[in-house]
User: Fold these one by one.
Assistant:
Number 1:
Amino acid sequence: MKISLKDEWVEFQSIKVRQPIGDFYMGVMQMQDLVDISYSDIRHRERNETEIEKYIGIQRPLSASRVKEIARYVNLVDAAFPTAIILSVSSTNVQYDEKSSRMRIRRDGEIAKILDGQHRAAGFEKASPRPSSFETNVAIFVDIDLEDQAILFATINKSQTKVNKSLVADLFAFATSRSPQKTAHQIVRALNEKEGSPFEGKVKILGVAEDGERETITQATFVEYLLKYLSLNPMTDRDIYKRGGVPKRAEGDSASKLIFRNLFLEEKDAEIAQIVWNYFSAVSLKWPDAWNEVRVQMILNKSTGFVALMRFMRDVYLSFDTPGKVASKEDFQQVFARIDLKQDDFTKSRYIPGGQGQSDLYKDLMEKSGLSTR
């Protein structure tokens, strides 16, 4: 079949930009067109004919988890790629009309090298279904040499500052629609601010401690582990709410994993907060010094102890066999009364900070409470 001239080229509006590195072009094109003509130059080791090894390519390897995350994201109602995907193209494959400010790039497989934005392109390509119309802004360098390509990539990525996860959690306060993220944020904020709460003044809001003598748990960590009981996919649930729908309830096995989901869907956020309050009040009464005092060697009121306790909370709550009900402080105290761990047991030497210590403490809580035999 004969291909029309229009089909042989990707054509779009663009403008010329002049900067110290040289001229380049800013344009807008369909993501599908970009995927059709682009490729990522992944850095890798290669042997030539004389068996001498050399490293070629400038891009870091793709992160499968990041690609999967973007593949889900592009179909959300408020998906956006506001920053430009940067491409390098040979002059033999591009045409630019100064008068009309139109650019044409040959549609012939791997024509455009991605210098920045490979995860966005790969995520869009993996999306199912793929959005039928999704424009992206692009910065196109023509005949840029390899040294400048490498320096441009390194400079962009070295200069990027990773956004504090606690700040991300806190920004959901601005959301007008309901979402698991907003609910988790509001619960954590309330528990940190309410007088008499077991978390009063203990949370590092925005991830930064203002009072090192009290604040031991980051807002991001608290929100992350609370979300595990509200939703398997918080972004999808948020998208459903923004579109005017209501996410599915938890039933069967999912109800055992998402112990607070149905309360969340019923908009009983206060009840969720009360359960968490009662549970950690029982913790603070069982081990008051270990929970309330900040000591270098103690881990109970830091991330190691907190994460283990959050994991254990699910098992304790399920043991009451009263889904959707607010378990009292006294209910939780009965379980903790069976655990013979002493306050001086919660040390870094016994429970190494990090994943191993969290797992070891969780196993001890399960075994000593008798819940592991259920």
Number 2:
Amino acid sequence: MELLKPQKLGSLLMPNKIVMAPMTRSRADNEGYTPTDMHVEYYKQRASAGLIISEGTVVSEQGRGYIHTPGIYSQDQVEQWQKVTAGVHDSNGRIFIQLWHTGRISHPDFHKGKLPVAPSAINPNSDVFTINGLTKTVTPRALTVSDIQQVVASFKKSAENAMEAGFDGVEVHSSNGYLFHQFFSSSSNLRTDEYGGTKENKARIFFETLDAIKTVIPENKIGVRLNPMMHDWSGISVDEHTAETFDYIVSALNDYNIAYLHLTRAGDVPNKDYFIKDVIGHYRKIYKGFLIANGGYDAQTGEQELLTKRADAIAFGRPFIANPDFPERISNDWPLAEADTDYFYTPGEKGYTDYPEYKG
């Protein structure tokens, strides 16, 4: 089975082509935004994945947008993540950290009353969880050029911190309606300076960030996450400019020696000419490097993507929640447990570290 064959990824040897996708689970300490001992156990349990990509981890106080999500910008956070990476490595695993800035998907509750930031002052009309519960977003403050330089610097420093924390690499979270995706989209970026308007300008902050990160860690330890056809979620809409922007971004990534491009395939999309219905097939033709496909796969559909060489590895999210031994279950054709959705984002071990391995 292709899913179970070893695979070289940058400087790593993956024992299989099964990637644990990044998933927010809201278990971090809400004071220092640090991982806890529960994180150590959770990721250790899932170390048989070919690669683990951690939950979204914010690069600065400014980047925060949800309660109980960890950071990688303080020394305390670095030291707590060291326990996680040591646990994964002691269990013969490999783990990248996903670096995250939520941009406008945030709230003043996280910023001592100050507005969250974005490319332009446009309210995404979304919801976020704050200390006061589910809360409506507000109109953000547009980043200045100086602010943008600080964002780039925060990703660079967080990448350095990730290496100190023992991670095998970093994934730049540039999808799902968060800060970089907000720059890419005409629905959230109305700037008229060098960070808006053309496809090159809309992608400028993203490539400036990659260029900054690669000065402090090897390029083959950097991954990138994109979700080109995400539509009508978090205030992001696909329009006639979307495909050309992402075509430009993916094509330009060929000039880098990054570890991988992690792509989310489209769900149900409107029947309009400017929607790419087969995201994986479309970008496989453009991107020459290592491609991880994500988006509702099971073992059979993931295997088909590998056999047809449309992807080099498959990312699975929800199956890893209730099946810490997911690769072993695939290997042995064991049944999969179902995750309890009531405990996806709740504090405590229940629904997090208490799912057992298969016992037969």
Number 3:
Amino acid sequence: MAMRMRGSLGLGIGLATWLAAAADHEVAWLDTVQRPPAFVAEHGHVLTPLLREEAGTLEDMRLDWEARRQGLRSRWLTFLGPLSRRHLAGGPAREAPRWSVLEEDRPNGVRRLLIRYAVESDQEVEAYLMFPGDGHSPRPGVVVFHSTVRQSILQPAGIEGEPEKAFGLRLAQQGYVTLSPRNFLWTANRSMDAAGQARRFLERHPGARGMDRMLLDGLVAVDVLASLPEVDSARLGCVGHSLGGKEALYLAAFDERIRATVSSEGGIGTRFSNWHDDWYLGPGIREAGFEREHHELLALVAPRAFLLIGGESADGDASWPFMDAALRIYRLYGPMARLGLFNHRQGHSVPPVAVERMEAWLRAYLR
């Protein structure tokens, strides 16, 4: 099945229409997640400027950023490796992979399918695809990434694990079509082999990073969602917690079809969590010559909606400088910047208030 056309970045018709529609349904608490915390501890990062202040008027600065953005995006993709870069080069003409159904059931009014499809010619992925039970379409679609738990995709599908992290099932019950792919570090549900899987991947793709494969998995998941007749490809989002929060950040940055994102406790700074592991970005990010930081990825998301949720574990008040840097880019596109940091201060968890904020964010910006 052919994938539907992506919206352009800039202020093309597709994105301008989305911005106008989103303006009618802002979350009531947007201003509260854009206020700096009372105190921000030194985070040890050097965040390179994203704008040249001497560019002139606001319009001049936006045009300057659009030009600089392309180079920044290219440098990041070159660093990550060939897989996602090659996939993105296929453009809107690329096709979604064919998928087969392995299992099907209907819990709580939701049609839940376990499916399998290829992400590389010799590498397949299993995922839970869930549809609302009322049959109405087209619906908004959401890619839901699981966290680092033994049961992998059984968690977002609501089969095993903490109910509050069953994002895929919860959202399907609320009217979204959701797709939850299993991260490549799991050889099967309940079987994770991070070091071994990372080693095998890097042997197959010298020069790549583990996040290259994770980004590819996200891009293909969006391809699958966007190809479904039940899904409105102009209303696509992604969510994830911890490991899944990392994947959500990268997918939002590099796939312009994603209109609304919630990333929970992934660690926005490269020193905030284990980004240096081989299955993410590798130990080279701790070397003196490494110049990239994740405020750049937040800026690549602009002006699409992005909510960072922290609990003072991987993310929290120390994440604010990254948000502040990216807000400067968001405000080039208009006064209503749909970027925010919500800190629930309950550690590396997903308390009810975080779930409520996630669901409200998607309701507002995937309408």
